[in-house]
Amino acid sequence: MKKTAYLIALPAALMALMSLTSCERGRVISEREQRHDVEKGNALYAQKDYGAAAAEYDKALSLNSGNPEATFNRSLASVRLAAAEKVDSLKQNLYAEASAGWEKFANAPKSNPAIASHSAYNLGNIQMEGKQFDQAISYYKAALRIDPTDSVARRNLRIAQLNKQQQDKNKDKNQQNQQDKQDQQDKNKDQQQNQQNKDQQNQDKQNQDKQKQPQQQQNQPQPQPQQQQPQQPISKAAADRLLQRSQNKENATRAKLMKQNSNKHNPRSRDKNW
After folding, report:
1. Is the pTM of the predicted complex or chain greater than 0.70?
2. What is the CA radius of gyration of the chain?
3. Mapped to the 3 state alphabet, what secondary structure does 124-189 carry?
4. Is the pLDDT confidence value at 7 over 60?
């Protein structure tokens, strides 16, 4: 009897489906296929086969790109794949895919508040992973605006705020260190420039002193050669007197010599042989 009832009920269900328009039948079939793909994806996700799960969610999204369950779960699978990815560029691409899916719900909380709250929370976690604490704080606050009772989101918000404070403190310290380093470099540069200026001044002074020495020697009075007094011209009478005086002196000398010679004995024989 139960078997007969079951067989009767089955044609009734088929008749109900046949009573729908072709458009409605297509929509119902599509929704069933979507649910099937999402459920299969969820089973694979539970088995930690995140790549295969993502493929099933993509099948559902190919039937309906606005499917909220498939979109949300596809983002979850992307995050899991990103966590295991070693290549940084691929990791960032997977995080970007996850963020794009959750942004759709976080920006429209009224359409599905539960999914919107979880989406904002997960977006906050992605930003925390990248140490983007400002954005993480914003997403956690958005999740709490949708669901103020979310204690986990509140706790993560506080953690993000503390990390932001420490980040700002480290940033200020690094900036101060860089400023101190720059100041020291400027100081060293100024000292070096001052020393160079001082050395140049000393060199200039030495050069000036060297240039002044010949000038000082030239400015000192030099001994002048003694000029001979010009001889005064003598008169003819004075010349005659000088000449006469010279002749007189010469005659006196000659007479003296002749007198001396006459008084001397001549020892030489004067006999002559013929």
Report:
1. no
2. 64
3. HHHHHHCCCHHHHHHHHHHHHHHCCCCHHHHHHHHHHHHHHHHHHHHHHHHHHHHHHHHHHHHHHH
4. no
Band (6; pLDDT cuts 50, 70, 90): very low
Query: CA angle, 76 as apex, 127 and 96 as ends, to 5°?
Result: 45
Q: What is the DSSP letter of 15?
A: H
Model pLDDT, residue 19: 57
Centre a 10 Å sphere on the Cβ of residue 230 and count the other Cβ atoms it contains. Answer: 6
DSSP 213-255: HHHHHHHSPPPPPPPPPPPPPPPHHHHHHHHHHHHHHHHHHHH
CA–CA distances in Å: residue 251 to residues 35, 248, 255, 259:
171, 5, 6, 12
Does the pLDDT value for residue 218 go beyond 50? yes
Please tell me the predicted confidence (pLDDT) of residue 159: 97
Q: Under 8 Å CB-to-CB from 204, ≥6 apart: which residues?
A: none
Question: Sign of torsion, CA 150 154 157 159?
Answer: negative
CA angle 70/73/79 to nearest 5° reads 140
Name residue, tokens 């649910």: 35
- Orientation angle between helical segments 133-146 and 151-219, nearest 10 degrees: 160
Q: Are 80 and 92 in contact (CB under 8 A)?
A: no
